[in-house]
Amino acid sequence: MVLYNLPVVPYYWYKLCSYAKHTDEIPEEQKYALLKTVTMRANRGGRVKIDVHGKENIPREENFVFFPNHQGLFDVLSIIEACDRPFSVVAKIEVKDIPFLKQVFAILKAKFMDRDDVRQSLRIIQEVTEEVKGGRNFLIFPEGTRSKERNHPGEFKGGSFKCAIKAQCPIVPVAMLDSYKAFDTNSIRPVTVQVHFLEPLYYEDYKDMKSTEIARLVRSRIVEKVEASEREVR
Question: Would the pTM count as exceeding 0.85?
Answer without folding.
Answer: yes
